[in-house]
Amino acid sequence: MVAPMERRQNWLMLAGAFTAFTISAGIMHAYAVYLIAFIEAFAWSRAETSVAYSVSQLVAGGTSPLVGALVDRLGPRRLLFIGGALLVLGLIGAALINALWQIIALYGVVMTLGANCLGLVVFVPILSRQFVRRRGMAISIVQSANGFARAISAPVITALIAGIGWRVTYLAQAAFIAAAILPLAAVFRRSEHAASDMEGAPLAPDAPPLPFHRGWTLGEAMRTPHFWLLFAVYMFTGLGSFFVSLHQLAFAVDIGFDPLYAATVLGIGALMAVAGTVVTGTVSDYIGREVSAILAYAFSIVGVICALCITSPDQHLLLWLHACFFGLTWGARGPTITAKTADLFPGPRLGTILGVITIGSGLGAAIGSWAAGFIFDLTHSYHLAFYLSIASYLGGCIAFWSLRRPPAR
Question: What pTM did the predictor assign?
């Protein structure tokens, strides 16, 4: 049975993880707004301006195993300090850039490493141990921070850049991160000790104790087809999402919508991901991870189809439908995929396993975000990129459905 004090500590830890992920995701998603500012300031092409974001996604995926191994050894509190310091340094440096390679190095590498230390891979292992019977719900709440961050960052950063310029906006973000890290780290000081004492304890007081098992190692997991199917799911999901998401605002502005209006509409759509992600992850505890994920893919596909139908700035309804359908389930598959990974490969090496699988997400996101800009430079349209997004989501459905049965050990 979980004592009331321990239960409150669990929820405090969940709130801390949500806040930390909101901050890091908000910083990284703001690049969609900076993309337009960089094109205006430096006359870079869409593909060139997308390189930093693509590098960021590759670095995010490539360093996830390292972050996963570090959190298994050091715990989330120390990673919060490391990530916060890297983000502050990267933001200050970004305010001073004058060349493309500089933003690639600062945003694509330094800031991405910092954001990874405040990301989902850091918090999933400890939350999976604390919220066993409500694992999907807990992970989905943290994952919903992604949508919440996107909803806030687009309109806020657009307004700040219009008011004080993009360089000063970077400095303002750095100051905010520096002020936020210490309170967040304090939340996890006690939580880590509580987690070490309660590994495997369920949230619900009437939950039966879990049987002891040694847990999966990375090598054992990699010898199963389920590991590579999860890798494929992450990659297809990254492709489907980032063929669209980085260039959403640029697409709407190209059509003729006012930038602040378009950012607001897309931000409201992204805000819906908070509810969509929580519902998708929670429902997956009851109807199964596979059915929940496929429903989320279907909503995203409808959203992309709505974007394909937009041809003029008079079609406000289609822009709203695109923003809402695509935004509702943007990131909603994340907690379902992550919870599925925890279901299939539980144990003390979950952070490492999840980190390696997350490489697929970084790979898909890197290819999708750069390819969409390259396709626009060639065709002066995002339509082909949007069609590829739909095809990628369908590939994700097939791969996820193949995970119905657990792996043999």
Answer: 0.70
